[in-house]
Amino acid sequence: MFIVTAEEMYGIDRETMGSIGVDGKILMENAGREVSREIKKRITKKDVITVLVGGGNNGGDGFVVARTLHVEGYSVKVVQVVGDEKIKGDADYHKNLFLRCNGLIFYRDFISDEVKHIIKDSTVIVDAMVGIGVRGKLKDSILSIAQFVNESNKQVIAIDIPSGLPADEYHSEFYAVQADTTVVIGALKQSLFLQDTASYYGEWMMVSIGFPFEVIHQYTDKQWWNITDFQSSFPKRKENSHKGTHGRGLVIGGNHLMPGSVMMTTRAAVRSGAGLTTTGTSKSVISMMASSCNESMYIPIQEQEGYLSGASEIDYSVYDAVAIGMGIGRKKVTQKLIQETITAAKGILLVDADGLYHLKDQLNELKSRQKPTILTPHPGEMATLLDVTISEILQKPFSFSKEFAMEYGVYLVLKGKFTIITSPTGRQVVESGGNPGLAKGGSGDVLSGIILAMVMQDQPIFEAICNACYLHSASADNLVKEKHSVYDLTATDIIEGIPNVLRTLTSSE
C-alpha cells in the first residue's frame, strides 16, 4: 500500500481525472460506496446515524455515504457544517442526489447547542467535515463541533482522515476528531505513521476507488510493508544450496560489561538463515558466548581495559556482510575500530548502537564506500547524528530520513513503532508491526542480526531490510499472542520466535 502526503494525493486525483479521464463524480461515488461498505460492518438498522458534512471532496464523500445508507433503509441525517457557498462542483452534485432521494439535511449556522443536541441523540457519527487539506487549527465553528464529537462518547467513523488532523508530517498545533474507525481512501496518509497523530485514526482500513497503480506510483515511492509484501518477496531456498550460498557474516561488538549485545546479534543472524557467522569480540566475551552459541565461529579482537580497540586480525575480504557496534561502548579507544571497519569492509556494512555514536565524526567517509552501508538508529541516535532534538526527529521522520540517506548514500532504518526504511535513492517503506514488548534492551541488537542474515540472501538489499524488520516485529507479535505478554517479552524470546514466523509465513515452500 502506498503512502502519500496531501500534495501527492491531490496530484494523483488530478492526474486520474485529467490525463486518465475518470470523472470526479465517479471517483466520489466510488469513495462513498466503499466507505459505506465498511461502515455497514459496524452499524445496525437500529442505529441513528449523523453524517457531519463540510466542504470539498471530503464533504462530497459524506453526501454519498449518507445517500447510500439512506436508500438501504438506515436512519440517516446530515448536518451541513458549512454554508452552501462551500458546497461546489462534484460535492454539490452528490448533495442534490441525496436531496432527491428524500434525504434529510440540517443546515446549522453553527448554533452550538443545536448541533450538540443532534450529536447527543445519535448513536453513530460519521465525520466528513474536513479532509486532508486542513492547514493549522480548525475554524472556531468546526472546532466546537469537533469538541462536541470528542465529548459525546459516540461511535465515530471518519472518512479518509479525522477532521482537523494534518495529513503530513511537521504538523503545528492542531485539534482533531478522535475516531474509533477511519476508512482511508485511495492511499495511506503520512500522518498514519507519526507518533503524535497515528492514534487519532483509531482502527483503520484502506479502500481503493479507481486510482490507477501507475498514477499513484508516479507521485509517491513511499510504501507500507505488510504480510503480502513479505511473502511475495521473501527468497526461496534452492534444493542444492549450501552454507556458502547463504552468506558469510561477521558480527563485531561487545565489551567486558556488555557481552549480551553481540551474543544476541549473533544468535539472531544464525536463527534468521545466515550461512556462516563469525563473531569478533574480546576473549572474555568469547568464553561466555561459546557454550550458548555453538554455531558461530570466533575471532579475538584487540582490547584496552576491556574495550575493543582494533581489528588488524580480521580479513574482511572473506565476509559478505559485517555488522558492528552492538555493546562496544563509547570509550574513545573504540573509535579506531569503527574507522578501520568502514575502510576495510569489502561487503555490506551495518552500523548499530554505540557504533553510531562513534560514526558521527566519520559520516563523510561513508560516501566513498563501494558496497552498501546500513545504519539502524532509534530517534535518539538519529537526533545525535543530525544535531537536532528528538522532538524534531519525531515530527519529521520521513524528511530527516530521506535527506540523510540520500546525502550519505546509505540505507537508513529509523527504528520505532513506525520503522521507516529509506534507500540511498530516497525510496521509503514503513514497517509498523510489533508491540510495546519490543521496548526492551536488546531488541535492536536482535534486529541487526536479522538484517545481517537477510541482506546476504538472494534478494535485493532494500527488500531484505524490509523483510528483516517485518520478521522481527512478527516474532514479537506472535509471541505476545501465543504465550507472552508485553511485560515479560525479552529480546532472547524474539530470537526463539523467529522459527515459528518463518515456518508459518513461508509454508508454501
TrEMBL record:
- Give the originating organism: Oceanobacillus kimchii
Q: How does it assemble?
A: Homotetramer.
Amino acids binding (6S)-NADPHX: 57-61, 131-137, 160, 327, 378, 445
Protein name, please?
A: Bifunctional NAD(P)H-hydrate repair enzyme
Q: Which Pfam families match?
A: Carb_kinase, YjeF_N
Q: Where is the YjeF N-terminal domain?
A: 9-217
The cofactors named for this UniProt entry are: Mg(2+); K(+)
Q: Where does AMP bind?
A: 415-419, 444
